[in-house]
Design goal:
12 helices, Rossmann fold, globular, 5-stranded mixed beta sheet, 40% helix, 2 domains, single chain, 12 strands, 319 residues, 7-stranded mixed beta sheet, alpha/beta
């Protein structure tokens, strides 16, 4: 089975994040980093060495961390506020709502090790509700890049964007999918593979699994389009409507609960504007158990083979 990407070369998107952040900070003295005793897990060690006066470590105090970020933004700085995604979005949600969204401050929230990336640390460390929590807030775009190239492009966009945002980054290795030099556009999806029978919409670590599933479906005589929907809010309604009209069926895949995330956002567009059969793959409204990150995705029916099987089942409804 030939794939348009190298499945053997996997990259940690955190490296792309910090690499781009250091590059941008070298030419922009207003860029600072704020973290919650997470220099190691956020991979900010290099940033600290290069810019020791521009890294603020508040300790394990996420609510304070977001407030410090907002204060820095009000002082003209461009803060990248970095923490493990479950604690940044869960523990500090009120501060994100009041100090970033409502106040419209220029704070870049970076959720590290998102989804089920912490695997063996269990439900307390899984971040499978963050799309839903942050997506409900105005003024905070929600972005889950698919690979290192899109991550670097999204960080560059975030630094130039006048306003808050939430970047959701995993620690699980993924292959390159986007071309070198890719330019991130807010609210713009990327069609990675054309298809006529069904569209698979995914983001983050699920995108390359969707691509493998599409290749498996081709062997079954099914032509599957794959859309990388990095922006959960604002979502690319045009891409969704195009998929609904041209392929007549949509399957979404996300490292998130099936309530309130990518699948829900796509379904809102579909049901309002062009209803077609849909299937939403994700964690089905339960706490995810303890296992490796990749095993958890498999356990919840998001191995490439299981995604392909779900597509096949959906097409029986399509007729």
């Amino acid at each position: 089975m030939n794939m348009p990407f190298d499945t053997a070369r996997l990259h940690d998107c955190r490296d792309a994040f910090t690499g781009m952040l250091e590059e941008l900070a070298a030419s922009n003295g207003n860029i600072v980093a704020v973290c919650n005793d997470s220099v190691g897990s956020s991979k900010l060690g290099g940033f600290r060495e290069k810019f020791p006066g521009r890294l603020i470590n508040v300790g394990i105090a996420e609510q304070n961390m977001v407030g410090v970020g907002a204060g820095l933004a009000n002082g003209g700085k461009i803060p990248f506020v970095c923490a493990a995604a479950p604690f940044l979005t869960g523990r500090a949600l009120e501060q994100i709502k009041a100090d970033v969204a409502y106040s419209q401050t220029n704070v870049k929230l970076v959720g590290i090790s998102s989804g089920m990336a912490y695997g063996e640390l269990g439900p307390t460390h899984h971040s499978i509700e963050d799309f839903a929590w942050v997506r409900a807030l105005p003024n905070v775009p929600v972005i889950a890049p698919a690979d290192r190239i899109e991550t670097a492009a999204a960080v560059k966009w975030a630094a130039e964007h006048d306003g808050g945002c939430y970047l959701r980054l995993s620690r699980v290795g993924v292959p390159d999918l986007l071309p070198e030099g890719h330019v991130f556009e807010l609210g713009k999806a990327d069609t990675l593979r054309e298809g006529e029978d069904v569209t698979i919409v995914a983001n983050g670590v699920l995108t390359h699994r969707a691509m493998i599933a599409a290749a498996l479906l081709e062997q079954r005589g099914i032509s599957a389009r794959v859309v990388n929907m990095a922006c959960v809010r604002p979502i690319d309604e045009d891409a969704i409507l195009k998929a609904a009209r041209e392929t007549g069926a949509i399957v979404t895949c996300e490292e998130h609960t099936t309530f309130g995330g990518l699948g829900s956002a796509v379904a809102e567009v579909v049901v309002d504007r062009h209803p077609v059969p849909m299937a939403r793959l994700g964690v089905p409204g339960v706490f995810a158990h303890t296992a490796s990150a990749n095993a958890l995705l498999d356990d919840f029916g998001m191995s490439p083979e299981a995604i392909a099987d779900s597509v096949s089942q959906l097409l029986k409804r399509k007729g």
